[in-house]
Each structure stands twice: as structure tokens, then as C-alpha cells.
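Quick one, C-alpha cells below. Sequence please?
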């Protein structure tokens, strides 16, 4: 395969149309909130609750997120990514004696449950070298425990600031500790076993860490500039769902967080799971509460009611937000393709271990569905007909498809798969041969979906349309590739259209509006850009460029 240089980096080109577009994940769920321990403002993937315990310490009563992750995997969740946020938490420290001075290290992750220990030795160093030393840092399960959860070894560190192995610089690569304050002029003393002159002993961390205060909406939202809070998820690929659990056991997430998270999900083409407020004690109260909330988004969904599950720390049933269980349930009910093509949505049935906090009558289910709220089931329903799963669009979306969860998930699946599967074209922008290969690659992908039963609302020759040639790719923009994709919605006569643009600075996906009766296409006004393409309504061919 040919190689090209991009900003000094050698890149091996991959096949285009010859390489099938991989199906995007439709189940990766992100959780943002407080945990017992772990790195702050870093997205950490977990494949099971055992992984979560290893990274974040497991269940903790001040952490609704920990229970949400447990419910997620209990209800069939497959893969999650967790972002820990903290409010005023402080790290533990390690004090290493350096003669009469002290080298102070501090844990990278704040909190009282970061149990560290360190050891110093001079093995394999010159006998007359008084500046270098070896450092071993370990995280253990509990104070005095010999169960090591993580270990890092740094050899030939130096107290000399001019050395490439200067301790303060070298520990920037550590995921466990960093240097606090000034580095002493004397290297750390060798650590010995307590009460002996025998190596190798360990120095345990000081009990000076704090878990901080309950988190606020400010902490969860974070900063886009610093990549903190939910913005730590910016670089997480194939994100399907985002769930922000209640801030505390008695404090729901604020409206400001919901609005910012919904906008973030729109940008990332993911779905936000919103808990019903704890004050909604009935379906009627839920309907009234929705009207007061006045929140509409085709990138958000809600299930009612909350759930009851056993709190293993308290040994009794407790009421929890249902977002973790909902994410797990949606993950196990099949891929977005089959969910959208099937004649009926999978039943939102909870697995054993979780119950409904309130019973919901059949008539109330339809009333809630009309307002965009879905209803969980604890037992299999005997009703032959049940409301389709909805988003919180509630008629506020320009596409009726966007009001239905399965169709929304399917459209996002299609768009995300195409966007990720065609990124390779940026290696050769401005090349008509590449444009042709991109279009062929996308047509092949959409054709496979059509063969599986998608786009059945229109005749086969009107199922989708792909444009990637000189008519939408200007020679004046040689470093960017535009791709126009249109595919049929579930509802007859409707289409979804997007403009995908790839460049060395990244990829963007912009919604476009198409009026086939008037044979014109324009980008939505809020995109601050206008593109007009005239299409012959008889055969779909282009009449003019832009």
C-alpha cells in the first residue's frame, strides 16, 4: 500500500471502497459523576463491574454513579466509560526522607482510598553516585495489605535538575504519583524493613487525603477548554449513550447540566439518558412536570418510573435513578440496525433484581408516550400493542422519525458508521479518484443495510443517494473532502440528509434539509453556511453545483 507524508508523519494508506465500512457501536455508555477513587477528569473504559471496582473502588454510598454502573452491568450492559469528577478532594502524600530533608510525593488521584507505598534502593548504581536512586511505587488494596493493584518502577532517577532523569520530570509519566514542592539537594534514603537494616522496606502514604464535598452541576459540566467534567469525553469515539446520575442520593441533576449534556450529545451524535425527577410520584405528576420542564430534544430519552434495587452496602432495598439500568437494557436489546428494522420495539423489560418504584397503568403508558416518556416493565406485558419507544423530541423535531428512539438510534448508527469509515479519504484530498472510491464505499454500505431490510418505506431505487465529486468538492478547498449522504426515513416520503466533511483538522457532520418536490437542497441556517444543490426529481441526478 502506498505511503504518504502528513505533517512529517509517514502514513500508510488503507483501501477505500475495497474496505467495508465497519458498523459503529450502538451501546457504549458514558457515566459522569463522583466515585470513591480513581483518576479525575479522565475517561476510563470498564468492561464489567469488577473492572469498575478495580479502577474506582466499587460501591460507595455518596456515589450514585457507583450504583448506576452496577445496575448497568446487571441489566446487560456491555461496555462503559467512566469519568470521575470531584469537588475539593485532596490527594494523599508520601514523605521520603532525604537525610534531614524530605522528598514529598502526592497521589495523582485524590481521595482517602488511594493507598500507596514507596520504596527506595540504589541497586545497579555506582557506589560513588550520590545523586541517583531507584523508586518503586505501589497501590495496594488496603493499608498493610500485600495485595498490589498497580506498580510502577523508575530506575536511575536523579535529584539534579539538569539530568534527563530528574525526578520531577520523570514522574510526569507516572499514573500514580507526582512530586509536590521542591526537590531536596540530597537523594532519598534507602528504605529498609522496619526495625532492621535489611532491604527492601516500604513507606506508606500519609492519611492526609480527603474525599471532598458532594459534587455540583458545575463540577459535572466541567470545562471544554480544560477537558474536564463531561467534556472529558470529547475524544471518546463511538459514544452511544451518556448518563449523568443524581449528584447525591437526594439531589437530582440540575436543568443546566441537562441542557449542556443534551447539546454535547447533539454534537457527538449520541443519546442522553435523563432520569425522571424523584418528585414525580405518578404518571399524572410526570406529565405536569414535563410541561413545566419544557425540555425537548431528539438527542435525549427518559424512562419512568425510577427503580428499586438492593443496596448491598445497607442491606435493604432503595430507590435509585433508572438511567444505569436503562442503558444496560438498551445495550442488550440488539444492535440499532435490527431494532429499527424490526416490526416492533423490544420490550423495555428489567431483569430480576430490579423492580419498579411505582406501578403504571396501561392507559398511563400511552399518555406518557405521547409526551415522549417511556415506561419500564418489571414483568412481561400481556398487551399485544404497547407504545413505541420515544425520544424527548415531543413533536419539536423537524423529522417525525426523530421522535422515535429506534429510528433515531438507527439514523445515528448510519451517520456515525459512514463518518468513521470514510476518514481515510483525508490522506488524499482533492483527488477525484478518491471521491469516487468514497462514494462507492458508502453506496456499498447502504446497499448492505437495504438488503437487511432497511429503507423499506420507499421503492428500492429511492432508498439512498450519495454524492462525492467535483460538484460539491471545490478545487479552492484542496484539503477538505465533502460527502453528501441522503437515506430514507422510516416514515414514507421522508429522508435524512447530512453533509460530512473530512480534513486534517478533523471531521464534521452537518444536517441538511432536502425538499425533493422543489428539487433543492440547503444546509440548515444555524450552520452559518449555505449550500444549494439542484436535483432532478425524475431521476435524482444533479443539475447544478454550488
Amino acid at each position: 500500500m502506498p505511503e504518504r507524508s502528513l505533517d512529517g508523519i509517514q502514513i500508510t494508506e488503507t483501501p477505500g471502497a475495497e474496505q467495508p465500512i465497519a458498523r459503529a457501536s450502538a451501546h457504549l455508555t458514558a457515566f459522569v459523576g463522583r466515585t470513591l477513587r480513581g483518576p479525575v477528569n479522565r475517561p476510563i473504559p470498564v468492561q464489567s463491574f469488577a473492572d469498575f471496582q478495580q479502577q474506582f473502588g466499587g460501591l460507595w454510598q455518596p456515589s450514585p454513579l457507583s450504583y448506576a454502573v452496577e445496575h448497568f452491568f446487571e441489566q446487560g450492559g456491555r461496555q462503559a466509560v467512566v469519568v470521575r469528577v470531584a469537588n475539593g478532594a485532596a490527594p494523599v502524600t508520601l514523605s521520603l526522607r532525604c537525610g534531614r530533608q524530605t522528598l514529598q510525593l502526592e497521589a495523582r488521584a485524590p481521595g482517602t482510598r488511594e493507598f500507596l507505598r514507596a520504596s527506595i534502593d540504589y541497586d545497579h548504581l555506582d557506589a560513588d553516585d550520590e545523586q541517583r536512586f531507584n523508586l518503586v511505587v505501589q497501590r495496594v488494596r488496603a493499608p498493610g495489605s500485600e495485595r498490589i493493584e498497580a506498580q510502577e518502577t523508575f530506575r536511575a532517577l536523579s535529584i539534579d535538575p539538569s539530568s534527563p532523569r530528574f525526578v520531577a520530570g520523570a514522574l510526569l509519566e507516572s499514573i500514580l504519583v507526582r512530586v509536590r514542592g521542591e526537590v531536596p539537594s540530597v537523594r532519598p534514603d534507602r528504605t529498609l524493613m522496619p526495625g532492621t537494616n535489611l532491604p527492601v522496606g516500604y513507606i506508606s502514604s500519609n492519611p492526609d487525603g480527603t474525599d471532598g464535598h458532594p459534587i455540583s452541576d458545575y463540577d459535572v459540566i466541567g470545562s471544554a477548554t480544560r477537558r474536564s467534567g463531561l467534556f472529558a469525553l470529547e475524544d471518546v469515539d463511538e459514544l452511544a449513550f451518556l448518563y449523568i446520575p443524581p449528584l447525591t442520593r437526594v439531589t437530582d441533576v440540575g436543568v443546566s447540566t441537562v441542557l449542556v449534556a443534551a447539546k454535547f450529545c447533539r454534537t457527538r451524535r449520541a443519546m442522553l439518558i435523563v432520569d425522571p425527577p424523584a418528585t414525580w410520584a405518578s404518571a399524572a405528576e410526570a406529565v405536569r412536570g414535563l410541561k413545566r420542564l419544557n425540555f425537548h430534544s431528539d438527542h435525549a430519552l427518559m424512562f419512568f418510573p425510577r427503580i428499586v434495587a438492593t443496596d448491598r452496602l445497607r442491606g435493604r432495598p432503595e430507590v435509585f435513578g433508572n438511567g444505569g439500568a436503562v442503558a444496560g437494557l438498551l445495550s442488550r436489546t440488539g444492535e440499532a440496525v435490527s431494532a429499527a428494522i424490526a416490526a416492533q420495539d423490544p420490550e423495555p423489560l428489567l431483569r430480576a433484581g430490579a423492580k419498579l418504584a411505582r406501578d403504571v397503568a396501561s392507559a398511563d403508558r400511552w399518555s406518557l408516550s405521547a409526551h415522549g416518556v417511556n415506561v419500564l416493565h418489571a414483568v412481561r406485558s400481556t398487551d399485544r400493542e404497547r407504545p413505541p419507544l420515544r425520544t424527548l423530541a415531543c413533536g419539536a423535531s423537524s423529522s417525525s422519525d426523530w421522535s422515535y428512539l429506534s429510528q433515531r438510534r438507527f439514523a445515528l448508527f448510519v451517520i456515525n458508521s459512514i463518518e468513521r469509515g470514510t476518514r481515510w479519504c483525508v490522506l488524499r484530498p482533492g483527488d477525484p479518484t478518491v471521491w469516487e472510491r468514497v462514494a462507492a464505499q458508502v453506496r456499498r454500505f447502504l446497499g448492505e443495510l437495504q438488503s437487511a431490510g432497511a429503507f423499506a418505506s420507499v421503492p428500492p431505487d429511492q432508498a439512498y443517494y450519495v454524492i462525492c465529486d467535483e460538484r460539491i468538492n471545490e478545487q479552492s478547498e484542496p484539503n477538505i473532502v465533502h460527502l453528501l449522504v441522503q437515506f430514507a426515513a422510516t416514515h414514507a416520503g421522508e429522508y435524512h440528509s447530512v453533509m460530512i466533511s473530512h480534513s486534517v483538522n478533523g471531521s464534521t457532520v452537518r444536517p441538511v434539509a432536502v425538499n425533493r418536490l422543489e428539487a433543492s437542497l440547503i444546509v440548515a441556517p444555524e450552520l452559518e453556511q449555505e449550500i444549494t444543490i439542484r436535483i432532478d426529481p425524475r431521476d435524482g441526478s444533479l443539475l447544478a453545483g454550488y
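Residues 3-21+422-544 form one domain. Residues 432-451 form the longest helix (20 residues).
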